[in-house]
Amino acid sequence: MKFTSHFILAAAVLLLFNFSAKAQQAAQDSLNLQDAIHAALTNQPSLDQVEAEINASESQTDQAKTAYYPQVEAEGSYNYLSPVSTLDFNGSGFQVMPKSNYDAHVAAHQLIYDFGKTRQNIALARSRTLTAEQRREVVKWTISYYTTKTFYSILYLDQSMEVVAEQIKTLNEDLDTARKRLQNGSATNYDVLSIKVRIGEEKNRRLDLIDQKEKLKSTLRKLFGWDPDRTVDVKGNLDLKNEEDITNLNQVYADRPDYKVLQQKKEELKKAYKLRSLSDMPSLTAGVIAGFKNGYQPNIDKILGNYSIGVQLKVPIFNGHTTRYQRQEVQSNINSLNAQSRKLKREIQEEVEQAKTDVKTGKQKLATSDLQIKQAKEQLRLAKIRYKNGVITNTDLLAAETALTKARFQKVTTTYNILLSQYDLKKAAGEKIWTSN
Q1: Can you identify the CATH homologous superfamily of domain 31-73+113-283+327-428?
Q2: Any idea what DSSP says for residue 281?
Q3: pLDDT of 380-394, one tens digit each?
């Protein structure tokens, strides 16, 4: 008896622990919008790819800076020469150089002046880093708004299922009434069957909504990088936002991450153009060489220490017009970016105007939604009274209930569409809805 009590207590503790763990997991996976956006931006392959590009650009900057440091190298060589040059001196041969030649030295070269080519190369590498960083903002901007749309789509399906559940509840009440009337002979089997069919239709609609919701949850898991079997739930409401009146399009252009990328890319190409223009400039380098070698008179086989110090000036004279063609290529790319910028401006303007129109139209529709629902409820109330009194048929009653359900769906759908349009407007304006980590 004592063993059984201990066993029951242990089982109860284990069940309580499992329930607590599941409850904690459910709480962790219940996400608001900012939680969802944060999860989507965490462990995101697209962002990891951009981060790698940023690191590569920073490495290019460091690599460009190395031109300011001396280049030091050690060399060693051995050469066997045969025959070697000799001079005839008083009837005897005099060897000018040894057959075995040894040379070991350390050489250092330091750039003195290159007319700004190294400085411009560093500026170009830094500009590439800024471009990559701006592309990172574009990725965050795109993922954040895509996550937002998915998040609110799930909430929309939840509210749609609530409308369906309320309709099924009403239809079940109608079914009880119809069965009672069938028993007293004031209804037919067809009336009962019609209601059952309607209930089946609403249940099928609910299944479709559940299927759509599960697909959207799968999309969130993919965005988050979560396992397919991990539970995910969202919390929130279809609360409309207060959108700003956007009148300054120049500010919109300045805030759009994709437009910023084009502008930064243009700055990068301008630096590349200037660097190409410096290709024909001379460069001045100093060099120091110190080491050991043989071949010195009078004992050409003796290895002696030696050194040399000098400067080298390189002046390009003709390179087949390479510099000119390189500048033409860069300028063509700049012209292409200018055209892309003008095109993107028009698209941004269209996006802003379209989103503003959608919001305005949606709010006008929403203004009559409550009135339509109120009217449909009153029609249904009267229809139920008339149906009980035998004034109208079962078909008329179902039509009144369908009208109410349609009005409720219309309000939920209109609210959802306005909310998406408001976020479309935010996105079109380049508004940042994610938090920096």
Answers
A1: Outer membrane efflux proteins (OEP) (1.20.1600.10)
A2: S
A3: 999 988 887 878 888
